[in-house]
């Protein structure tokens, strides 16, 4: 049995309705492919991605900024209480095999930058496009397809395990 793909979904804690629905769809599509959704565990894009995964019967791992696991949104399957504040952004992107960024603010920008530092590719869906490690997508479906394609190209995807 092959190990699942971990997809980190990052974005603002206060998402627009469009960002929320895009992130929810991404979570659902990742779960339907047998992947694990990794997120920051709180609201907005993080909640939406975890919700999509949960609704599809998948797993969502939330890496929280503080010491209180009970603060995780209700869709998180497993919560990690990091106790390191915003520095948890590094754990979120390093845990994923690939990162999908949906909208976002400066916290999301830090995650996109950190992803580049730790060698993770990023698919940007209406988010930051900074660095050679970032590719753009126009829809949730395209974002997930690109994420899994990037991993296959790098020999890390499900087809290569």
TrEMBL record:
Record InterPro entries: CHP00725 (IPR005268), LDcluster4 (IPR041164), LOG_family_nucleotidases (IPR052341)
GO terms under cellular component: cytosol
Record's signal peptide: none
Alphabetical list of NCBIfam families matching this protein: TIGR00725 family protein
Database matches in PANTHER family: CYTOKININ RIBOSIDE 5'-MONOPHOSPHATE PHOSPHORIBOHYDROLASE, LYSINE DECARBOXYLASE-LIKE PROTEIN
Protein name: TIGR00725 family protein
Provenance organism: Rubrobacter radiotolerans (Arthrobacter radiotolerans)
Lineage summary: Bacteria, Bacillati, Actinomycetota, Rubrobacteria, Rubrobacterales
